[in-house]
Amino acid sequence: MADEVKALWGQYLGNLQRHPLRTKAITAGVLAGSADVIAQKLAGAKNLQLRRSVLLMLYGFCYSGPFGHYFHQFMNKLFPPSQDSKTIVSKVIVEQLTSGPWNNFLFITYLGMVVEGRPWSSVKGQLKTHFPSVQLNAWRFWPLVGLINYKYLPIQLRVLFHNLAAVCW
Known about the structure:
Blueprint: H1 2-18, H2 20-42, H3 50-78, H4 85-97, H5 99-115, H6 120-152, H7 155-168
Helix pairs in contact: 1-2, 2-3, 2-7, 3-5, 3-7, 4-6, 5-6, 6-7
């Protein structure tokens, strides 16, 4: 079993090397859809809402994976590659004040309008009501993910780690 896992990991890393954007997009899509299935099961759903899971998979594939790919490239240009604490904390702060709120805003909007089919007026009300608490809770979880990401992971694995953390989130 360990040999098979090692071989699959090697194939994944090879795909990541040859086709980084495509691999990150597919990975983000699979993990977003899987996270939704897990969430539905944990919530006690007797029948899975497959349409919902597919739409969340699409979100991961079309947005989360590509956004993460380009965002981490941008961060490497904005900050020199360094493992010193000041640089790592600066990256986490920039991430938490820019992409964090943006991603939460976009996800709430996508969930409401695309997945649930609600009109903008309804989603706008939900954003006003729920966005502040969502963002405050995000700031309790995601800075630690960012610290681990920037301190211990090479750039090519940051989107994967971020998406694995999102499964828990």
